[in-house]
C-alpha cells in the first residue's frame, strides 16, 4: 500500500505537469486526465495516514510529553493508540455505507468524458482509516511492551523508524 | 447556557487537554469532536462525515500540497536548498539576520504562487530549518520566521482566504487580489525590518556566518557559487510564478512546474538516482499525509461544533456589538482573533462573517478594505498558539530537538507584528484601496 | 374520527435541514429574493412555525455536491442545487435543469408544470427515495467571456475554455480544449490567458466574479443554457410523513420562489449588462449565426446519441422534444414577433 501511494505521488507530479504542457503547447486537455489529477490525491492522503503514523510523522504538542517519565509517556502512547483505533474504526465503519451507496448509484463523473467508478475513489476512505486502525493496534502493542519494560530503550523497530530521515 | 453550549466548551477544552498531554493533534481533534457530538446529538449527523472527508481529499486546490512538498523534499534531498542558504548567508557578509531575510523572500515568492499554508510552511521549513540550526540561529526565531513567512501566502494573491471572502463580501476576486498586494508587501517588509533590528540588537539570535569562514572563500568563488547554488532554486520559483503570470498554468497547477523543475535540477546537479527518488516520494507521502491527517480529523470537530450550535453561540456575541463603525470593527477583529484560537479559518469565515458584514454595509464601510483587514486577521489565526495550523505543520517537519515551546515562543513576536500591520491598514485605508482603483480591477 | 386525527397531526412541529450546493453569501443561489434561504423563511412563516427548515450553505455541513447522497440517505431532509449536478448518478436528470438549444424559461416551466415534465422527474427519482420540485430560475444564461473575438467556426479550434457539462462536450467536438476549473480560479486563469474563454452564469453573477476585467468580448445568448432551473430535492419518506397542508405550503413557496428569483434575475441582469457595456468597455453580442448553427447541429447529434444510449434519457428526451416542438411553433408566432416590435 505504501508503494502504491508513493507511486501516486510521482504520477501526480507528472500528470499535472503533463496536462499543463500539453494544453499550453498543443491545446490538448482530455477531461478524464484532468479528473485523474485530483483522483490521485485520495490514495496519497488516505493510504498515507497509516504510512505516516507508522513512520511516527504525526504532529504532537510535546511541551509536557518531553518532561514525562518513560512510563508516563508510554501511557500517553497507549492512550493515543487506543484512540487511533477508535477513530480509525468509527470512520471506516461510517464510510462503508457511503461507498455502498455510491456503488448502488453506479456513480461516475457528472462531466461527459469524465471518469466512471467513483465508488472506487470513495473506497479509499474506509480502506485508509481501516489501515489506520491496524496501525493503531500495532502501536498499542508497542506502547504495552514499553510499559512492561519501562527501563528498556524503545523497541528496535521504533528506534529505526524514528531515526529515519523524514 | 444550554446543555449543548456547555458541550461546545467541553469539546474545545477536551481537545486542548488531549493535545497538551501529547496525544497527536489530529486524533485529539477527532476524538473531542466525536465524543461531544455523540453526547449532544447522537449518531445522526455523523453519517455526513464521509461526505466531508471526501470533500477534503477531492478538493482541487489541495493538489498544491503534494506538489509543493515534492518540490521541497526534492530540493532538500539533492542538497540544493542547503547550498543555496549557505551561499546566501556568505553573500550577505557580516549582516546579522541575513539568512532570515532570505526566508521571508522565499515566503513572499512561494506565497505568490499558492495560498495553501500547509504547503508553504512545510516546504520552507524543510528547506531552511536544518541549515538555520546549523548556523546557530535561535530555534525560536527560526521557527517564528518560517511560520510567519509561510503564512504570507494567505494575504499575497492568489489566496484561498481572498477567494472565499470575495464570495462573502460580494466583491470580485480580482479586486481583492489587487487590494491585498500592497498590504502583503507591507507585512513582509515589517518582518524584514524586525529581523534586521534583531540583527543589530540581539545578534546572537541571528548570527551572520563567521568572518573567518567567509574569508576562506574568494570573491570570485562566491559569485560562482551564487550562480551555481542560488540561481537554480530561484529560477524554480520564477518558473512557478512565471507560469501563472505568463498564462501557462492556473495557480494550483503551477505548483507542478516547481515539482518538475526540482526533478530536473536534481538530475542536472547529479544528485539524482532511483534511491533518491524513492526517498523523495517517501518524504512527500509522509509529509502530505500528515497535513491531510489534520485536515481530515478537523472534520468531526467542525461538524460537532455546528451540530451543537457553536455557530449560534458566535451569533449570540453579535448582540454585544457596540454602536458606531469604529467600535464594530474593533469588536469584529477581537472576535475573529479569539475564534482563531480554536477554529479553522474556513469555519470562522463561514460562521462569523455573513452575520457581521451586513452591519458594516449599513455603515457604508468600504467592503474591500474591511475584507483585507479580515484576511490579515485570519492569517494571524494561523500563527496564534495553541491552535495555529502553521505551528502544527512546522512541528511535523522540524528536526529532532525543536520543541513545541520553541515554535510557540517564536511566533509571538510575529503575531505582534501582524497586529501592527493591522493598525497601519486601519489608519491608512488607501494602502488597500489605491491599487485596485489605479489598475481598474 | 379522521377529522380529529388530522387536527392533532397539524399541531406537530417539523424541524428539517436543507443543504445547498452553493457557497455562503451567494446572491440568488443562497440569499436574496426567491433564494433557498428566502424559501425556508417563507415556509416558516406560512406554516406558523410548524415547519422549520434550517439552511446550510455548501461546506457548512457537507461539501457542495454531496447533497444528493445525503438526502437519499436521509441524514439531511432537503437540498438546493441543480439537477444536472447528478448527471454522474442519473444521466437523465440533466434535462430538468436545462438542455442546450432546448426550451426557454417560459417553455421549461410549461413543460414541467403542464407538459408532464414534473411527473417524469418524480418517476425518475422515485427509485432513489427522492422527490424534487423547481425552486428557482436564473433565466437565460450567457455564452461567456472570450479574450479574442470569435468570428468563424475555425476560431473555436484550439480555444481553451472553462465550460462544464454537456456544452463542454459539444464545444470539444468543434476542437475546443475544455478546462474544468473551480469558481475561484476562473478569474486568474482567464486574466492571464491560461484559458481563452470562460462560461459562468449571467451579467450579474459574472460581474461579481470580475470576469469583465479579464476578457472584454461577452457573447450573450446562452445557447447552452437557455434556462436554468434550481432544484428543491426532498427525501421521499420525509415528504410522505408531512401533513397535506405542509406539503402544499412547500409546493407553493417553491413556486413563489421560481417566480421571484426569475424576476430578480431579469431585473439585475438588465442593470448589470448595461453597466458592463456602458462603464466597463464590454462588447456584448450574440455569436455569429454560422457558429450558432454549427453548434446546434453538433448538439442535436450529441443529444440523440445520448438518448439512444439510455432508456431513461430516451423517455425524458422524447417528452421534452415533443413539447419543445409544440411550444416553439406557438412562441414563433407569439413571443418572437413581439420581441421584434
Ligand atoms: Na498566495
Ligand atoms: Na489559531
Automatic annotation (TrEMBL), chain A:
GO cellular component labels: plasma membrane
Q: In which organism is this protein found?
A: Marinobacter psychrophilus
Task: State the oligomer form and interacting partners.
Answer: The complex comprises the extracytoplasmic solute receptor protein and the two transmembrane proteins.
Keywords recorded for this protein, A-Z: Cell inner membrane, Cell membrane, Membrane, Transmembrane, Transmembrane helix, Transport
List residues traversing the bilayer. 7-26, 38-53, 74-99, 119-138
For this protein, the record's Pfam families field holds: DctQ
Protein name per its UniProtKB record: TRAP transporter small permease protein
Membership in a protein family = Belongs to the TRAP transporter small permease family.
Q: Name one GO molecular function term.
A: transmembrane transporter activity
Q: Which domain of life is it from?
A: Bacteria
Q: What does this protein do?
A: Part of the tripartite ATP-independent periplasmic (TRAP) transport system.
- Primary site of residence: membrane
Q: Where is the Tripartite ATP-independent periplasmic transporters DctQ component domain?
A: 12-144
Q: Which InterPro entries match?
A: DctQ, TRAP_DctQ
Tell me the membrane topology, using the record's own terms: Multi-pass membrane protein
Q: Where is this chain's protein located in or outside the cell?
A: Cell inner membrane
From TrEMBL, chain B:
Q: Which InterPro entries match?
A: DctM (IPR010656), TRAP_DctM (IPR004681)
All copies of the TRAP C4-dicarboxylate transport system permease DctM subunit domain together span: 13-430
Q: Does the keyword Lipoprotein apply?
A: no
Its main subcellular localisation, reduced to a broad class, is membrane
Cellular localisation: Cell inner membrane
Spans through the membrane: 6-39, 51-75, 101-129, 141-165, 177-201, 222-248, 254-272, 284-306, 326-346, 367-387, 407-435
Q: Which GO terms describe its cellular component?
A: plasma membrane
The residues the entry assigns to the signal sequence are: none
Q: Which domain of life is it from?
A: Bacteria
How is it placed in the membrane, per its record? Multi-pass membrane protein
Molecular-function GO term, any one: transmembrane transporter activity
Q: Which keywords does the record carry?
A: Cell inner membrane, Cell membrane, Membrane, Transmembrane, Transmembrane helix, Transport
Q: What job does this protein perform?
A: Part of the tripartite ATP-independent periplasmic (TRAP) transport system.
According to the record's subunit comment, the protein's assembly and interactions are: The complex comprises the extracytoplasmic solute receptor protein and the two transmembrane proteins.
**What's this protein's family per the entry?**
Belongs to the TRAP transporter large permease family.
The name under which this protein is listed is TRAP transporter large permease protein
Organism encoding this protein: Marinobacter psychrophilus
